[in-house]
Amino acid sequence: MEEKDLQNLSETEFIEQYKKTEKDKYEKPSIATDMAIFTVATKKVTDNRKKADKELQVLLIRRGGHPYKGDWALAGGFMGIDEDVETAVQRELKEETGVDGVYAEQLYTWSAVDRDPRMRIVSVSYLALVDQEKLPPLQAGDDADDVRWFTVKDRVMESRDELVDGTMIKTDKIELTLISDEVTASAVIEKTTITEGANVKTVVTISERNGIAFDHAEIILYSLERLRGKVNYTNIAFNLAGEEFTLPDLQQIYEVILGRELNKVQFRRHVENMVVDTGKEIKTGAYRPSKLYRYNAAWVYDQWK
Amino acid sequence: MEEKDLQNLSETEFIEQYKKTEKDKYEKPSIATDMAIFTVATKKVTDNRKKADKELQVLLIRRGGHPYKGDWALAGGFMGIDEDVETAVQRELKEETGVDGVYAEQLYTWSAVDRDPRMRIVSVSYLALVDQEKLPPLQAGDDADDVRWFTVKDRVMESRDELVDGTMIKTDKIELTLISDEVTASAVIEKTTITEGANVKTVVTISERNGIAFDHAEIILYSLERLRGKVNYTNIAFNLAGEEFTLPDLQQIYEVILGRELNKVQFRRHVENMVVDTGKEIKTGAYRPSKLYRYNAAWVYDQWK
DNA sequence: GAAATAGTGTCTGTGAGACATTATTTA
DNA sequence: TAAATAATGTCTCACAGACACTATTTC
């Protein structure tokens, strides 16, 4: 049936006909999800410093089969034909973390033609944040060795600005290092931002890849940026804290995310309206106890004040 | 061949075999793009006020066939199996606007199972901004009537906050109105934000739909929010201005996007470093002429100051 | 000079950033 | 009392917001 004739049908007839003759005319990609699941963990290391240190970790899974066999990949999976992406993500989050209702937000959809050698896979990536206290210990089952939390470190190796003829070219070379007990994976990512007039275009390429599967180093970096970008003006970081927490602990979570130390007074002023004093205290050492707070459910981010 | 046996092959053999037997095991969705293309246009209306007024417009296309026949939809199309989403978007932007290198940024990927009655379509939406001066007049061809710029108005009809048991439920009822010469399309969108602890989830439903196809009212609203959210701390608005512009004009672009008036002094201070004086002036009426500025290519957004 | 808009000077309040001080605990 | 960390007081500086004023044009 010609396209023209199709349009003379009623809507119901059209759709019936479309499903028969048009629906599978073109080859389609698969849709997958990739989730950068983060937690802030307390370092086990007992070094000289008394102050407990925390670190940002991401969950990775060792690839048991081709492609990228043996490399570490983000959690994720294929979207079923009868579910939407959000449902797939919540299903997979529950599977991987064992926790219900984990915070997740959509990041970006990756669609490079060659991002998977098997076939065309378009991936919708998500940023997920879990409170470490809620996490069950990683399953000690047969594949315990294949699911791990990696400490995340990123470092700008090189930063170059070039202004040519009204076009600003900014090149950043960023090293991403992921460390688990005995395993270290890493990547070097080159990020080029071309600003022509006010039109900003960013091209990202992975120039070195050691043990990180697919384009996942890029996705992890992107999720880090999103996390850092939102930490200061949303409640996003509270998803990484327990029900009750001390302000010094909360501050450490912020510091671990931002990768720098924060001023105490300023930090407390900043979160003042986001927390409620529980009236409880907690003693953690040979010094003044901390007050316990909880998240203030009534807090609203007044976008434009 | 069993999954187990597949994994004993070399990577090349595996992929070859995968493409033969595994690749099309499951039904796949189609990938489409939807683009909210905005421009800021100068009102033709000559009312009593001398000050020229601008308005925010979005490009819509009348659907010639089922489904949503006769309704207005965002520009877009299917992603080819040999191109990535960005390429598809740039191709379609050129087709629709006639302009090369239009600013476009990825917004969100929509995947509701029933968002298209024909088949499963996952849509990657984009926000695009074009300078009106660069736009050729809409093609006067046979389908000139099918492509139009609509003035965008949105209004919060109702806003309710409810705090139940540590869970904050914020419900906003928003009216979106799109006006072209003789055509008006509109929708009422209900946006519910559920904040449980710090975990924010937003559910959006279209409760009334008049002449806007698919879930496109939702996408337009989402793109408006993104535009407003970025206007104050990026150079995004400059994509809506010409090569050279006056500060009063630039301020109007900001005002039209934000939907409110801005303080002149404060605005000028805000954009001070983003613009360069061209030394030229432009006379537009019986009053002091405006200086012409251009975008300052050397401006960089120092993310954390 | 009147009308209209462009552009500048300056006061005020808020909030970020930094430094200093006090408070509370245990050894 | 020393050591360690929690919590608060307060100074400074940058900037957002507002108001008032000056500048330039045409009629």
From TrEMBL, chains A, B:
InterPro entries: NMN_biosyn, NUDIX_hydrolase-like_dom_sf, NUDIX_hydrolase_CS, NUDIX_hydrolase_dom, WH-like_DNA-bd_sf, WH_DNA-bd_sf, WHD_NrtR
Gene3D superfamilies named among the record's database cross-references: Nucleoside Triphosphate Pyrophosphohydrolase, Winged helix-like DNA-binding domain superfamily/Winged helix DNA-binding domain
PROSITE patterns named among the record's database cross-references: NUDIX, NUDIX_BOX
GO MF term list: hydrolase activity
Domain Nudix hydrolase: 35-176
Keywords assigned: Hydrolase
Protein name: NUDIX hydrolase
Species annotation: Sporosarcina quadrami
